[in-house]
Amino acid sequence: MIKILKIILLLLFAPAVLYGTSVDEVITIETKNTVMIFTGHPGEKFLFQFYGDKVNDVSQVIRSASGMNEEAYPAFGIECSKEKALQVTHPDGNMSADLFFKSVEKIKIDDNISLTKVVLFDNAYAFQVTVNYKTYFQEDIVEIWTDILNEGTGPVTLFKFASCYIPVRSFDPWLTHFHGAWGDEFNLIEEKLERGVKVIKNRTGIRNTQCDNPSFMLSLDGKSTEENGDIIAGSLEWTGNYKISFDMDEKYKVNIISGINEDASQYILERGNVFHTPKFILTYSNKGKGLASRNIHRWAREYKIKDGTSERMILLNSWEGVYFDITEDKILKMMDDFAKLGGELFVMDDGWFGDKYPRNDGTSSLGDWIVSPQKLPNGLDPLIKRAEENGLKFGIWLEPEMICDKSELFEQHPDWIVHQPNRTTLKGRGKSEMLLDMSNPVVQDFVYHVVHDLLVKYPKIAYIKWDANHFISNYGSTFLDQDKQSHLYIEYHLGLQKTWERILASHPDIVMQASSSGGGRVTYGHLQYFHEFWTSDNTDALSRLNIQWGTSHFFPANAMASHVSASPNHQTNREIPLKFRFDVAMTGRLGMEMRPDDLTPEEQNFAKGAIETYKSIRSIVQQGDLYRIIAPNDGCGIASLMYVSPEKDRGVFFAFSLSNNLRYKLPPIKLQGLSPNMKYKIAEINNTGIGSKLSAYNEIFTGEFLMNTGIQISMNKVCQSIVVELVEVP
Ligand code: DGJ
Question: Whose CA is nearest to atom 6 of ligand 1?
Fold first, then answer.
């Protein structure tokens, strides 16, 4: 019987095995400057050979035997000692998969995008894996994912299901990744990879980027710099738990395995079903980290971030201004004051909702998304009306996935939470916050209606800050079947994504920010639904320089919310001049997070000018190419970066003084990204009117001079800063 089944399977899946062919098929995945090379012979193994700079005649890689010759999507069970991309158990208990090349299909999607689908089959089971490679030619990006199909006799359990597997060889591999914590997100860590397995991963279930980020840069020839180094950079597009392993199992070989974190997540794939892994993007740079970032930023703006090429509004968020203490008067006053400064959008943060339990602090009300009659007796209408009169758009804060035990929702639906029925549920913020079970379609529908009904009732709401301040504790779902409890980490996110898709389908113009206790949701899994993310709850400008520096390696300025807050700063208690705070915030999507009337009249004047200045350079910051020049932790007391327009006719340069340099003249700072042949007029902008820190004012220099020799600035005290605009002149 088994023999007959095998023959049928061979007929179905491996015609090439029967008819035979001895010529290896070379499959290339090409972008403008890079190539990924595979070989596949029908009925044989599908092999990864090469990823790097474009090779003119790819047969050279094969003829020179310099290719990797490694299985492109290895599975556990035959050769068992190494880390694999896939591990399954078949209905008969067999724990192996053995995949062979079946076919390849190339699909041209448009002039820039192509998709290559490589189908692999198992010669003993009706089990098939399609590995997809989608290329974005101009941006040098490859997006990789797999579709795992079970056509067997019963359910297959997936124990490991990576999105992507890339083997590389290197004499001196250095890994850059981004570790962090609340208020201290995205610290760049660069470390030499040694033998063994290095893993970056998350298992909070919800805010998947508060610790590390599912993004890395692997330098293949020693420690990289912004301009030098052969680098493979990758980032996972997934909103939940992730795991990226760097398995250095031989002296010079590193296998990179990335995807959903399979810990406690074995997935039962029913017969006839397909499991789609999340997408993983890769780029290759032969010019260090800077080029890798620019490739990813361009791709992200054009193809991934919601409305990624549209202009972002300058907003004021109420959180650090009034926290939970929301009243109509306070909100109206903030809106009036912000409008006078030239603001464009007002966002009312936490504290506006709850009827039976008004939201006065973190101990209650999540789930009761009705305007609090005690706090806002006239409802939202007067606020929205005043925003409109002031020429502002109106936005609002929601935390729809969460629930407090002190809420009407919990009284009605105690069974909707993520919990184990026979244990006490661990609560989060306010010793009250819990998580709604987004794997449950009824809960998905509730969450959809929280947003939909609000937007139908108040169609002028233009922006939603979608917060998520809890994590998965008491892992368990009363919705999922007993044998599928291990699906929760994944089904939660599939349910959540479905809900976001539904919201966006009903309200295509709504602008959304992903927030999660600060920067807990900063991935391309989120940004396909969101326009931007809240980078960190730490708004201290000096801290932000470091946090935003790390974040900028994978995420562009138009998605990075960066707000000017009060001084002393509420998180660090540090006092920082308003100009420095504005200049730091202007390197991202500028906003404010304070009561404007806490500023003196002179400061308000400055803020008004700064907002006007930002409007004049916004297109360069938000859509231009980023060049990181001096890192905040380089130890030279200065941090510096610049943006250059795609046409290279405009640029904006920022420098920040991080220490006192009382008696020293700084070396000139060499600019980057300009056209050597163009001439640029340079001028300091956003200054306080007390003399320029730029030594040459309104002078004209060639791009070549500015990049080879540099500009001279004088900043000798900590927390001074300068913004220089460059405009091409004939
Ligand atoms: C956490 C967010 O990161 C903050 O910006 C703020 O929205 C609070 N939640 C409100 O509770």
Answer: 319
Superfamily grouping for domain 627-729:
Golgi alpha-mannosidase II (2.60.40.1180)
Residue 46 near residue 103, CB atoms below 8 Å = no
CB 252 within 8 A of CB 194: no
Record: fold of 315-623? TIM Barrel (3.20.20)
**Of 184, 316, 317, 319, which is best to mutate to test ligand 1, by the most ligand atoms within 8 angstroms of its C-beta?**
319
| Mutate-to-test residue for ligand 1 from 324, 365, 534, highest number of ligand atoms within 8 A of CB | 534
Surface-to-core class of residue 698, CB atoms within 10 Å of its CB (0-12 exposed, 13-18 middle, 19+ buried): exposed
- The pLDDT assigned to 594 comes to 98
Q: Check residue 572 and give its pLDDT.
A: 98
CA of 401 to the centre of ligand 1 (A): 14
Q: What is the pLDDT of residues 456-498, one digit of tens each?
A: 999 999 999 999 999 999 999 999 999 999 999 999 999 999 9
Q: What's the 518 CA to ligand 1 centre distance in angstroms?
A: 7
The pLDDT of residue 382 = 98
Q: Which atom belonging to ligand 1 lies closest to the Cα atom of 518?
A: 3
Q: Which of 348, 469, 533 to mutate to test the pocket of ligand 1 (most atoms within 8 A of CB)?
A: 469
Distance separating alpha carbons of residues 695 and 711, to the nearest angstrom:
8
628 C-alpha to ligand 1 centroid (Å)? 29
456: CA distance to ligand 1 center in Å? 25
| Cα(539) to centroid(ligand 1), Å | 12
CA 419, 362, 321, 641 dihedral sign is negative
What pLDDT shows up at residue 665?
Answer: 87
The whole-number pLDDT of residue 10 equals: 40
Give the whole-angstrom CA distance, residue 474 versus residue 215: 28
Q: Where are the domains of the chain?
A: 2-304, 315-623, 627-729
2-304 CATH fold: Beta-galactosidase; Chain A, domain 5 (2.70.98)
Ligand 1 binding pocket, CB closer than 6 Å: 319, 349-350, 397, 467, 469, 515, 517-518, 534, 537
Closest residue by Cα to residue 467 from 370, 384, 533: 533
Q: Whose CA is nearest to atom 11 of ligand 1?
A: 350
What residues in the chain have per-residue pLDDT under 70? 1-24, 690-691
The tokens for 626 are 């980023």
Backbone angles phi, psi at 559, to 5 degrees: -100, -5
- Tens-digit pLDDT profile for residues 147-205: 999 999 999 999 999 999 999 999 999 999 999 999 999 999 999 999 999 999 999 99
